[in-house]
Amino acid sequence: MASVDIxxxxxxxxxxxxxxxxxxxxxxGEFVSLVGPSGCGKSTLLRMIAGLESVTGGExxxxxxxINDMPPKDRDIAMVFQNYALYPHMTVADNMAFSxxxxxxxxxxxxxxxxxxxxxxGLRPLLDRFPRQLSGGQRQRVAMGRAIxxxxxxxxxxxxxxxxxxxxxxxxxxxxxxxxxxLRTTTVYVTHDQIEAMTMADKIxxxxxxxxxxxxxxxxxxxxxxxxxxxxxxxxxxMNFLQGKVTVNGSASFVTESGVTLPLNDAPAAADGRPAxxxxxxxxxxxxxxxxxxxxxxxxxxxxxxxxxxxxIGGQEIVSVFHDRMNLNPGDIIPLAPDxxxxxxxxxxxxERL
Amino acid sequence: xxxxxxxxxxxxxxxxxxxxxxxxxxxxxxxxxxxPFCWLLLSSFMHEQDALSVPPHWIPKNPxxxxxxxxxxxxxxxxxxxxxxxxQTLPGMLNSFIAAVGTAVVNLVLGxxxxxxxxxxxxxxxxxxxxxxxxxxxxPGIALIVPLYLTIKAFGLLDHxxxxxxxxxxxxxxxxxxLLKNYFQAIPRSLEEAALIDGCTWLQMMVKxxxxxxxxxxxxxxxxxxxxxxxxxxxxxxxxSTTASKTMPVVVAGFAxxxxxxxxxxxxxxxxxxxPPLVLAFLFQRLIVQGLTSGAVKD
Lengths: 354, 299
Ligand SMILES: Nc1ncnc2c1ncn2[C@@H]1O[C@H](COP(=O)(O)OP(=O)(O)OP(=O)(O)O)[C@@H](O)[C@H]1O
Ligand SMILES: [Mg+2]
Fold this sequence. Notes:
heterodimer, A: alpha+beta, Rossmann fold, CATH 2.40.50.140, 2 domains, 6-stranded mixed sheet, 5-stranded antiparallel sheet, 8 helices, B: MetI-like fold, globular, binds adenosine-5'-triphosphate, binds magnesium ion
């Protein structure tokens, strides 16, 4: 096992800059998730750690070694690909044993490790099958088995679950997390599914257009997003944003463009009069006749465990989530109040948190 | 209601007619293709008088293996009437086999390297190169016969199997490269990357992962090259003159102008000529059809 240090790493394909100086510290045994929208450079960064892409600038360390120019086979990493990439002409057992055979590990050792991994992943009865004789979920497991038999310094995952159906994805999510808790191998896990990242990772790195927007523990990112991008990316349904101005004289408050006044617990004095964005998560609304603002219900979506209510406050559409069953109809007017302790303020220009 | 039923009957009836017509057509084509071969096969088991009888008939009166035996074990009488057929058929087959296998091997080695490069790397002139390869297929062989003959003569390679192999490679390699390029392109890159991460060098990756995965494509390419060389008459007749390099098609064609050759012996040599490619086809067909690649990735 080892730590991974990524320092000011850049990547360019010809004139096109894809990564603009990315720095991430991954400590030994940590499970780090890279998230971000499509095309932000997650896979590129992961492939650079694996040695499948050259490094244009900066340094990547695994343990204490700089591995910028080291061929993949010497990096002692294992990677699970989105499309599994199993060797089609080998049985499950041979797929898993391949790397050990290349290293000329003793026969008994190979046998022991392959059966061990197969045991963990429930692959024992499938060892003699070929990849074409497996279901998608089983193939995924073999791909993981191939990684764990190696007992590598670092596991790299590139959206390993995105080809599975929703139910299996949730199941495998738990299995991978369990596996990490058992093996404690440093893991870098790329996904564009923020729920996957939230549930599995010790640390999340949110990327956007080739830069790191924020790094932190899942709930820290959720509770204190550093900027508008992270605030909008983490959380589902996404945070509501309302444009307007902060006023700090007396008790702090926020006035939206349409003139509705929203409560604030406090705001930095420097923010007074500045154009800003008021962010509030859907679950941080209450229905309160005393302080609620009149909101017109547009759509009600019950999911069983919760109810999502789309409504308009002062002409602006917002979404709120309640854990009670709501007996509402489109057109109803309800008194909706954002919880001022849970409100977020962002600078309208830079998008940074105020 | 009754109308609907009548219509559906009508539709069924139409489908049946269509099916029967298709089957009849298929049967006709099969007969058209197989009849000459059957004639050849049956003749090879006839005595000469049997084969020459008028009107001709299909079924041998007293089936015999003597025609086959005489190729491997020439007898006195046969030595007079069928001497050329007997002398030249086996060396001709051997020459054909060497030329075809040689062509296939060279195609595989060069085609794999070129096909891989074209599939995986972007380089200046890649498109032009592919265009030229494709364009070269448009050139009829006959147009090149004279310059080819003169070139090979200048090299002193007339009546030499090397010249034949070189010629066949020239005409087959462009197609092989295209075939293998497309085959490699269809194999996901992540398979190679997984092998590199698992600890392979590039060469190990090729030998242990990529080529086995591409096996059906490699076999198809080898079969194509083999058959092209095995069937060629045009180049062989120009470039060969003795049993040192005469191939089967040239030998067989020679019988037609040879007054002393027996029909049954010609038929037998024809059957013998079909055996090697037939055996190869049966051996490899299973491998090609099996679809070795399936299951590598989620598709
Ligand atoms: N070989 C290449 N040549 C040129 N540009 C490339 C190449 N590979 C990737 N890119 C570009 O780099 C950027 C980042 O790609 P990358 O695959 O890392 O995105 P990603 O974050 O993994 O997205 P996704 O979630 O869709 O997988 C994209 O804009 C892509 O177009
Ligand atoms: Mg990606």
